Amino acid sequence: MNVDMAKRLADRRRQAGLTQEGLAEKLNVTRQAVSKWERSESSPDTDNLIALAALYDVSLDELLYSDVEEFTAEADIACEASPANAGDGSPIPTQGQT
Asked: How far apart, in whole angstroms, are the C-alpha atoms of residue 73 and residue 69?
């Protein structure tokens, strides 16, 4: 996990008025786990990321990325440049198609 994401997790927790202990109880994890997430020493698993987004009433993108619009634009560019995308708008053939 990168430092920016860890900071966002800590900021969201504080905005929700929760302590690390309080958040840990809601997610059924240890306070030490929350502390590690917020210090960028480990990352929440997928289930906990989903629970955090629901708890804070934000999308996963908002939770994970500082600038969702910038991320979306970068993802679109990456998809367009992907070798799997011929760039001609045609669908990718599936097995048995040529």
From this structure: 6
- Per-position b or e across 22-51, b if 16+ CB within 10 A of its CB: ebbeebebeeebbebbbeeeebbeeebbeb
- Tell me how far CA of residue 71 lies from CA of 47, 61, 74, 75, 93, in angstroms: 22, 8, 5, 6, 28
- 6: helix, strand or coil: helix
Mean pLDDT rounded to a whole number for the chain: 82
pLDDT tens-place string over residues 72-83: 555 566 566 655
CA atoms within 13 A on the CB side of 57: 2
pTM equals 0.67
Q: In the block, which residue shows the tokens 């900071």?
A: 7
For residue 35, which of 16, 10, 60, 64 has the smallest C-alpha distance?
10
**Regions in the chain scoring below 50 on pLDDT:** 71
